[in-house]
Amino acid sequence: MKKVLLILLGCFLAAGSVKAAPGDTTWVQANNVQLSYYNNYDTSISFPTSGTSYRKVLMIFTLGKYACPGSPTYCGDWDYTVQNFLMTPTDTFELGRLITPYANSGAPRTPLTWKQRYFYDVTPYASKLTGPAIMRILFSGYSGGFTGDIKFAFIEGTPERNVTGVKRLWYGSFGYGGSPDINTHFPAITETAPNGTQSAELKFTVTGHGSDNTGCSEFCTKNYRVMLNGSAAVTKTIWRDNCGSNELFPQSGTWVYDRGNWCPGAIVYSHHNVLPGITAGSTFNTSLDFDAYTAAGGSPSYTTEAHMIYYGPMNRTVDASLEDIISPSNNENYFRENTICGKPTIHVRNSGSAAITTMTISYGLAGGTMQSYNWTGSIASMEEADVTLPEMYLLNDEAGVTGTRTFSASIASVNGAADEDATNNTMTSQYVNASLWPLTIRLGLATNNEATSGTASETSWKIYDMSNNVVAQRTNALVSTIYNDTVTLTSGCYRLELTDAGCNGLHWWANPSGVTSGTFLIRKLTGTIIPMAGYTTGGTYAHDFGCGFTKYFYATPWAAGVNELGTKAMAIDAYPNPAQDQLNIDLSGIDHVNGTLRILDVLGRVVITENCMESSKLINTSSLENGVYTVQFIDNADGSNKLQTRIIIAK
After folding, report:
1. What are the φ and ψ backbone dihedral angles of 306, each rounded to 5 degrees?
2. Closest CA to 619 of 601, 592, 597, 647
3. CA 522 – CA 543 distance, rounded (Å)
4. Which region among 13-17, 291-295, 377-381, 426-430 has the lowest average model confidence (pLDDT)?
5. 374: burial class by Cβ within 10 Å (0-12, 13-18, 19+)?
6. What are the distances in angstroms from CA 532 to CA 71, 338, 493, 553?
7. Left (φ > 0), alpha (ψ -120 to 50) or beta: where does 284 sit?
8. Does domain 571-649 sit in CATH 2.40.160.20?
């Protein structure tokens, strides 16, 4: 059973990925506030009392929106820093940082109902997350429109390794390139490693803000060094180079620009700097050293937080932890990777001391027949890897079927034997199916005038099959040119990748004057546009996709005539779905129904045929075996006109 202190959530990480119950999970509700202006937003809470071992402790920050009263100029429109502090009677630690997105309510992804979750592993602070405390949200914003909600999940069990000590060293926002030198804020501190220590890391969270005449510190690349006993032990770059691939896109501001270790709308990743040679009783001194720099006007700065964390030995030798399901998933943090057909992808961490070289992984539709995959490779201790699984045939069979499904994955064995900790081996995710496309499609690319060099366009597209072979492409495009490529595929799952080398899409409202706009549209041979979920084709944010856009689809001959019965909005609905012995068929948008209903199995064989003269029809499906079927309505006046949907028979 689950223990709850302040609030019981229906399931762990609702609407995203969920862990199989490893034992008791204690939930603690912290802040739930409107972030209306620059301020500290404090909430008093009570964490569990000490004495319980937790395998993992997660902090989940949910960012949302509210309608600002009085119709101000800005409401949820800017990229503001959000810092989350744990304040106990004796300690203060920043547990996580994020930057709000440019989230105008007119943007397609950020209506007033929008929410985005940010996940932080705060297990190293478990000894501090006990008893009474204050959680503080420091919102560094000069307009309102955002909400902040913090919850903690305490998952009982044995952690990957025990923490022997944690200490806050330096913190604050400091000017860069002026007087005093920023390095004066990070003086050498002498430390002695606690008993039981086998390793140590300096966790450093840093983001660049403000701008001088050269763009520092928000738009410049600088380094810092972690000094250990007077020598540089680690050098890190303060930069985030993938903002144009942001999972939250498009945004109503300059979201594609890379920045000083942050992107608008994204979590801020801390640097985990391992210090060599630190064991129990080691006495050492450490400091930070930023690149020398002289600011050219303006007010560049860095916002910082540094913690020294000491660890004991690994608690297990062989332990593979299934950390997340990337696809299939409805998790908004994997928006670009979904929806899919074909091959699922999971994320695995090696939580043991021995390298992982083999894993047996079972996966499939929850409650159904599982597929099994014997993975081989190498994941070193405390390293992580994405694992792409072989094609899941039900993802292909169900392409085009509406409704939410549940995917399940489980690590059955590791290195040829049972895993030492089975509590972190299983996860599920909610997902929706990929789309059905016809075998023959027309890809229309109108390039803008931005070039990689000469007259070569920044934009290209490729279609891959599930063996990662390129089956069609347009990679030799010229600027300011229209291309209409007709591609004929065989039945199967495919991945379409649209890329832009400039990472500003084919159109971006913030492009400099003189940059033209391009378009990218997929059509049936009839000229009907095939919609691509997540890709905007009209309005201010049309063709605004940053560095790229990926679309999975299943090509089938039965998709060619879908929804093409004239010009009205026509549809076919089949329910219940899944069905057992009876199936209701409803047709809408057809003035005079005169056609044939057919049900086909996954091999394309017609298993039921009935005349259809009314908009509603009841079909006896008692003779059908369990599986996925296609339901088609064919107009008797023109057999090329079809409506279709997919169903599941589950008895």
Report:
1. -125, 130
2. 597
3. 13
4. 13-17
5. exposed
6. 34, 11, 15, 9
7. beta
8. no
405: its two tokens: 């499904």
SS3 19: strand
Read out DSSP for 465-519? ETT--EEEEE--PBTT-EEEEEEE--SEEEEEEEEETTSS-S--TTSPTT----E
Q: 437-559, which class in CATH?
A: mainly beta
**SS3 label, residue 198:** coil
Write phi, then psi, for 244 (nearest 5 degrees): -70, -5
Tokens of 434: 């990929």
**N- to C-terminal Cα separation, the chain:** 31
- Report how far apart, in Å, the C-alpha atoms of 478 and of each of 387, 443, 500, 503 are: 37, 16, 13, 17
Q: Which helix (H) or strand (E) holds 397?
A: helix 393-397
Tokens 């690349």 found at: 221
pLDDT in tens, 1-49: 333 333 233 344 443 444 434 458 999 999 999 999 999 999 999 999 8
Question: Same CATH topology for 1-159 and 160-314?
Answer: yes
Q: What is the distance, to the nearest Å, from the Cα of residue 29 to the centroid of all Cα atoms in its chain?
A: 23
Question: Domain locations in the chain?
Answer: 1-159, 160-314, 320-433, 437-559, 571-649
413 within 8 A of 403, measured Cβ to Cβ: no
Its CATH class, for the domain covering 160-314, is: mainly beta
pTM of the complete model: 0.86
Topology classification of domain 1-159: Jelly Rolls (2.60.120)
The stretch 338-365 carries a mean pLDDT of: 97
> DSSP per residue over 80-112, as a string?
-EEEEEEE-SS-EEEEEEEE-----TTSTT--T
Mind listing the pLDDT tens digit for each residue in 200-237? 999 999 999 999 999 999 999 999 999 999 999 999 99
Looking at every residue in the chain, the average pLDDT score rounds to 92
* Residue closest to 517 by CA, chosen among 449, 462, 577, 459: 449
Report the DSSP beta bridge partners of residue 537.
none
Contact call for residues 24 and 2 (beta carbons, < 8 A): yes
Class of domain 320-433: mainly beta
Per-residue pLDDT, averaged over 167-180, amounts to 98
> Do residues 94 and 268 make contact, with C-beta atoms less than 8 angstroms apart?
no
Residues 573, 589: Cα–Cα separation, whole Å:
12
SS3 617: strand
Higher pLDDT, 402 or 374: 374
Give, for 644, the enclosing helix (H) or strand (E): strand 642-649
By three-state DSSP, how is residue 420 classified?
coil
Q: pLDDT class for 602, splitting at 50, 70, 90?
A: confident
